[in-house]
């Protein structure tokens, strides 16, 4: 049994014949927060979106190589995307609640995956909202539209919604960048609390945030992995001069 | 004076002028219909069918046409919606650059521009083939087919406006395309879908040409789909065509009734769409 949740092997991604990711090979450790850092446009989001095949939504995209999760190459065209995305949840950059009530937002995923029992759905809602610390704030207005919540609450709702389908992996695409500092801190704390049960991959271009969250770091630059390794090593003793320059704020 | 400020004034003036023209023409139509028709409007008009010689200035009302118009347009809207909504859903599965979708949309736009009279003539040919008589059913089919392209494109436009991030949220939870279209996009677009239905309803209830050959005309209220049916626009047309000033006044009174029906439907559906819009994402 390996301690890695995801293995990316020789991944190439191009969009409109433009190479976005080049020969990416990384191992994502289980039950840790892996932070992918790098300047804007280096392919962080593309890499993240390859892991749940959301990249498929982009037109004229071509992927080569392998991403192995649970022994399967998920880039295989025969992959069941619904099952993959049930296993690999995603929280977007800006909160994107669905046009329905708070309750219906949380049960949207479970219902799609066949859960019908109202008692279990109620329980799922309560558990998921408690996990993200939102239950006390909203338990008496679950029927209110999700859009009535504050942005920070909406993002926590989106996190709860992702948890409700029971994933093992959570992909966070600059998940706090649209939030105020206090709400962002909230989300960060919740992610840290969640890492015992989930493998979390967090994309950010904010170094301080990366330092707060990361157990493992992947530094991407111009579509290539420059360096990856345990957070302490990367942050205190980077081997590649480009990593060093990035950490010192020379570019980015 | 500053040149840019001057520009600002000119364009603002132009905008006010344009809005004023639109509103004034609307008000003028209202005013003329009401002024000319109010005196002929009485309770008998909306509670009775035409009695012998109504169109010659005798007793009765136009309940036949009121009920007929409502039956016909509600039927046509139901028919058109049940065709147009799945068609619009179908169009959502294509990417923005899709040629197929572009071709279908172009065809639908052309179909929306065809005069309703031609739809009537087309259905009339089919009726001759089947040796069918003009009836409520054929009227519903004609009007339904004539507003379906319009409604499909309106639905399509509204659903294309659903933000990409909502679709992503749905897909990332494992939803299929169909689930996303049905559960998220339709829901988000609902207020707009209602507006589209409303606009089409106006077209359906106001159109005289398409039902001229296909729905017939009768002084009685239809009791089945195979009965011929009277409609308000045709009633207005017949009343205006008589040489009697008294009957011509009734045409304007019928116009008031038509306006009131459209108003009721409009306010009702706005209320409905507002209630549902409270879940929409701004």
Describe the structure.
The complex is a heterodimer of chains A (252) and B (282). Chain A is of the alpha/beta class. Chain A has one domain (4-247): P-loop containing nucleotide triphosphate hydrolases (Rossmann fold, 3-Layer(aba) Sandwich), CATH 3.40.50. Helix content of chain A is 36%, strand content 27%. In chain A, strand 1 and strand 2 (18-29) form a beta hairpin. In chain A, helix 3 (102-112) crosses helix 4, helix 4 (118-131) crosses helix 6 (151-164) and helix 6 (151-164) packs parallel to helix 7 (181-194). The longest helix of chain A has 14 residues, at 118-131. Chain B is an all-alpha fold and 282 residues long. Chain B folds into 2 domains: 3-38; 41-277, Orthogonal Bundle (MetI-like fold). In chain B, 73% of the residues lie in helices and 0% in strands. Chain B is built from 10 helices and no strands. Chain B has helices spanning 3-37, 43-47, 63-92, 99-113, 116-130, 136-160, 164-172, 177-206, 232-241, 245-277. In chain B, helix 1 crosses helix 10 (245-277) and helix 8 packs antiparallel against helix 10. Chain B is globular. Classes of the chains: A alpha/beta (252), B mainly alpha (282).
């Amino acid at each position: 049994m390996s301690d890695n949740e995801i293995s990316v092997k020789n991944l190439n991604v191009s969009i409109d014949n433009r190479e976005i990711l080049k020969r990416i090979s990384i191992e994502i450790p289980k039950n840790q927060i892996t932070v992918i850092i790098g300047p804007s446009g280096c392919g962080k989001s593309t890499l993240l979106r390859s892991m749940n095949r959301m990249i498929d939504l982009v037109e004229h995209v071509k992927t080569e190589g392998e991403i192995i999760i649970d022994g399967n190459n998920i880039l295989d065209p025969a992959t069941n995307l619904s099952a993959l995305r049930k296993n690999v949840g995603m929280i977007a950059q800006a909160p994107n609640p669905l046009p329905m009530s708070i309750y219906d937002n949380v049960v949207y995923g479970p219902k799609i995956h066949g859960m019908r029992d109202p008692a279990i759905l109620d329980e799922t809602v309560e558990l998921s909202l408690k996990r993200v610390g939102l239950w006390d704030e909203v338990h008496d207005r679950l029927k209110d539209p999700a859009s009535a919540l504050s942005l920070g609450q909406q993002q926590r709702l989106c996190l709860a919604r992702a948890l409700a389908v029971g994933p093992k992996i959570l992909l966070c695409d600059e998940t706090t960048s649209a939030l105020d500092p206090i709400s962002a801190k909230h989300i960060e704390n919740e992610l840290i609390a969640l890492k015992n049960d989930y493998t979390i991959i967090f994309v950010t271009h904010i170094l301080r945030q990366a330092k707060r969250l990361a157990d493992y770091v992947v530094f991407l630059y111009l579509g290539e992995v420059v360096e990856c390794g345990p957070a302490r090593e990367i942050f205190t003793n980077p081997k590649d001069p480009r990593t060093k320059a990035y950490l010192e704020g020379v570019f980015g | 004076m500053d040149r840019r400020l001057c520009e600002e004034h000119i364009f603002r003036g132009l905008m006010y002028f344009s809005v004023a023209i639109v509103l004034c023409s609307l008000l003028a139509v209202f005013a003329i219909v009401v002024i000319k028709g109010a005196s002929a409007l009485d309770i008998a008009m909306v509670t009775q069918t035409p009695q012998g010689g109504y169109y010659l200035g005798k007793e009765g009302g136009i309940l036949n046409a009121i009920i007929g118009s409502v039956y016909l347009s509600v039927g046509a809207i139901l028919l058109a919606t049940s065709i147009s909504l799945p068609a619009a859903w179908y169009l959502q599965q294509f990417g923005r650059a899709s040629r197929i979708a572009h071709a279908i949309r172009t065809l639908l736009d052309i179909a929306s521009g065809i005069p309703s009279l031609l739809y009537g003539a087309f259905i009339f040919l089919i009726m001759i083939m089947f040796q069918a008589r003009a009836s409520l059913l054929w009227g519903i089919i004609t009007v339904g087919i004539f507003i379906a392209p319009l409604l499909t494109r309106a639905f399509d436009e509204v659903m294309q406006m659903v933000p990409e991030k909502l679709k992503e949220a749905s897909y990332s939870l494992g939803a299929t395309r169909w689930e996303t279209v049905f559960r998220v996009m339709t829901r988000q677009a609902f207020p707009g879908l209602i507006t589209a239905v409303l606009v089409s309803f106006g077209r359906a209830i106001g159109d005289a040409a398409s039902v001229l050959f296909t729905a017939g005309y009768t002084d009685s209220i239809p009791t089945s789909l195979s009965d011929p049916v009277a409609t308000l626009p045709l009633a207005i047309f017949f009343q205006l065509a008589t040489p009697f000033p008294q009957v011509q006044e009734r045409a304007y009174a019928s116009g008031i009734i038509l306006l009131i029906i459209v108003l009721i439907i409009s306010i009702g559906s706005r209320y409905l769409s507002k209630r549902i819009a409270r879940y929409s994402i701004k």
